[in-house]
Specification:
- The complex is a heterodimer of chains A (386) and B (227).
- Chain A has 386 residues and is an alpha+beta fold.
- Chain A has helices at residues 3-11, 15-42, 44-47, 70-75, 110-113, 121-129, 138-144, 187-197, 218-228, 241-250, 253-284, 286-294, 299-335, 348-375, 378-383, and strands at residues 53-58, 66-67, 80-88, 102-105, 117-118, 133-137, 151-156, 161-173, 183-186, 204-205, 207-212, 236-240.
- In chain A, the strands form two sheets. In chain A, strands 1, 3, 4, 5, 6, 7, 8, 9, 11 and 12 form a ten-stranded mixed β-sheet that branches.
- In chain A, a hairpin with a 4-residue loop joins strand 7 and strand 8.
- Chain B is an alpha/beta fold and 227 residues long.
- In chain B, the strands form two sheets. Chain B has a six-stranded mixed β-sheet with strand order 6-7-8-3-9-10. In chain B, strands 2-1-4-5 form a four-stranded antiparallel β-sheet, with helices on one face.
- The chains are: A alpha+beta (386), B alpha/beta (227).
């Protein structure tokens, strides 16, 4: 007979109570895991930012375009190695609820600027040489069962009309945090059509992406770029890609922070649930603890028994919850439109936080019953009638 | 026989709110090795308190209790717990077995605090369960045993570490006459055959008559009566 066996048997004395507690902990851990996954998914763009990339956008807002003519001026800055540019296209593919990012980009520089979007040489050549071609991310290809050579038709909203493309490449994400849900096509294709259909909107760029020779120069180069266009009709704001991403999600930060806080409130609720179970269990066993003390068991032994039981229940419920979180997150990843959360998976930090929470909950929930059991005098414990 | 327990000028009071309630008044008592002593007295006379003090599960307000040369009233909590585990076996009126453990596992509990191997523990437990006549009930849970059998498991648990003293608080108080006789016979056997020093607290004159000595307590005072 081992002490672990006694802990196990104690935990299962009231099977219904323990089952409900384990069930409650499991649900709470699933909720915690899901909320944390949403939070980490929201910040994945920041994780993917590169230190040597700067973003130059309109100083007023990201939604105002910049002149195409800025390109050559930015290129002339000595610390600048390469410049690419993008327009947010928007549009509808098949169904307006099927959202994913669609960009018009400089076909000659975009994949050099973003090496984390891995494309074969052949695909890159085919894309570069064909005006109406596009490249899509691996996840979009999987979701819509698209392959190279397939047509892709978008209904424009920001740029009205029917837009026909041919898929000439499917890029693979280099890292697990790389977005694989974008569609990229030729900015020239967009611009030609604007020249014809809406000349005032031609030769406009949404934002420039600037690669610099050394991340340490980011502040200097940012200032140089912005100084170039000071007092022009389209002043610029240049910042690191990370700062740009942070600014991009800042509008939603209150909601995300709220979710973050709720995820930790859930931990507190689990603590109360398990704490209540442990208090009831320890109270019912007051006399038994007194008997154990009479037999020579010390306070440390009782701490081990009660805390062990609390940790056992916490680990059981938490473990079940954590294991179930993986398929549940995988399910959500499938049903949520790709564009909302390009990367929606349980990050290691979520697992670490959940495991830490399980451990902390197990310990803290047992503190009060432990203190009570240790402090109760043997003679009082023996007289206890539960 | 040598003196095993020396109780010198022991007094004990409890506090209820701001009122001091004296329970034992200046008790002096000597118990010799191999004694079988019964403490009798009406409810509230202090007999259970005296037993608890001797067993080291309560502390005197005044005086000293020396057991086999150790003044247990000066020991700290953990030292006292260690001392109890090797020197005292306690039998309760309501058995106080752990309901989720079998008879074997209940008896093994005190041995888990020792350095004995698993095989040695098994041997000890099987031996004492045979002594109390429950060799065939080792794997029964308390709820599967009768009251008398539960009390015998409790006695086996009390003696499995081969303690110096066996203390029993109303060991037959919850049993029918036949079961009570069986328990008292077992205690007599432990005293005569295994040379255990036994102290019991009882209301029952029949139970007290099986002891070699009887001491009476009244309102916290000890009235010694030679047998």
């Amino acid at each position: 007979m081992k002490v672990f066996k006694l802990i196990f048997k104690n935990a299962l004395r009231h099977k219904l109570r323990t089952t409900l507690t384990v069930f409650g902990i499991a649900i709470a851990v699933i909720a915690f895991g899901l909320l944390r996954t949403v939070v980490t998914a929201w910040y994945v763009g920041i994780e993917a930012s590169q230190a040597d990339r700067l973003i130059t956008r309109h100083s007023v807002s990201f939604i105002f375009p910049l002149p195409y003519s800025y390109l050559e001026k930015i290129k002339k800055i000595p610390e600048v190695e390469n410049v690419s540019f993008f327009n947010w296209f928007g549009g509808i593919y098949k169904d307006k609820n099927q959202f994913f990012a669609r960009f018009a980009a400089d076909a000659n520089t975009v994949f050099d600027m973003y090496p984390e979007y891995v494309l074969s040489k052949e695909e890159l050549n085919n894309f570069t040489n064909e005006r109406n071609s596009c490249v899509i991310g691996r996840d979009i290809a999987r979701q819509y069962n698209l392959k190279i050579g397939d047509p892709m038709v978008l209904e424009g909203d920001i740029y009205p009309g029917r837009w026909e493309f041919v898929i000439r490449g499917i890029y693979q994400p280099k890292f697990n945090y790389t977005d694989a849900t974008s569609m990229i096509f030729h900015w020239d294709y967009l611009n030609e059509r604007m020249l014809q259909d809406a000349p005032p909107r031609a030769n406009e760029v949404g934002w420039y992406v600037v690669r610099i020779n050394d991340p340490k120069n980011s502040a200097v180069v940012s200032n140089k770029i912005d100084a170039l266009f000071k007092n022009s009709p389209a002043e610029t704001k240049t910042e690191t890609e990370r700062a740009f991403q942070q600014g991009f999600i800042a509008s939603s930060s209150a909601i995300i922070e709220g979710m973050n806080v709720i995820s930790f409130i859930i931990v507190g609720i689990i603590m109360l649930v398990l704490g209540n179970t442990m208090i009831m269990a320890a109270r019912e066993r007051t006399r038994e603890y007194a008997v154990l003390k009479t037999l020579g068991y010390s306070g440390a032994h009782l701490v081990g028994l009660i805390m062990g039981e609390s940790l056992f229940i916490s680990a059981l419920g938490g473990g079940i919850g954590l294991l179930l979180t993986f398929p549940i997150v995988a399910f959500f990843e499938k049903v949520i439109p790709k564009g909302f959360f390009p990367i929606f998976r349980i990050e290691p930090i979520t697992v670490i936080l959940a495991l830490s929470a399980i451990l902390i909950i197990g310990i803290i929930s047992s503190l009060f019953p432990v203190q009570r059991a240790v402090r109760t005098k043997i003679v009082e414990g023996l007289r206890f009638v539960g | 026989m040598a003196e095993l327990i020396e109780i010198q000028n022991v007094s004990k009071s409890y506090w209820r709110d701001s009122f001091e309630i004296p329970v034992l008044n200046n008790i002096n008592l000597t118990v010799h090795e191999g004694d079988f002593l019964a403490l009798m007295g009406p409810s509230g006379s202090g007999k259970t308190t005296l037993l608890n003090l001797i067993a080291g599960i309560d502390r005197p307000s005044q005086g000293s209790i020396i057991v086999n040369g150790t003044d247990i009233s000066t020991l700290g909590e953990s030292a006292l717990a260690k001392w109890r585990s090797s020197n005292v076996g306690f039998v309760f009126q309501f058995y106080n077995l752990i309901p989720v453990l079998t008879a074997f596992e209940n008896v093994e509990l005190p041995l888990l605090l020792t350095k004995l191997s698993k095989a040695e523990r098994r041997s000890h437990v099987e031996n004492v369960l045979s002594v109390v006549g429950l060799g065939d009930r080792m794997h029964h849970y308390p709820k599967q045993l009768s009251g008398g059998q539960e009390q015998r498991v409790a006695i086996a648990r009390a003696i499995v570490t081969d303690p110096l003293i066996l203390v029993a608080d109303e060991p037959t108080g919850d049993l029918d006459k036949n079961s009570a006789d069986e328990i008292l016979t077992l205690m007599e056997r432990l005293n005569s055959e295994f040379k255990k020093t036994i102290l019991i607290v009882t209301h029952d004159p029949h139970a007290a008559s099986r002891a070699r000595k009887v001491n009476h307590l009244e309102k916290g005072d000890l009235i010694k009566e030679p047998q």
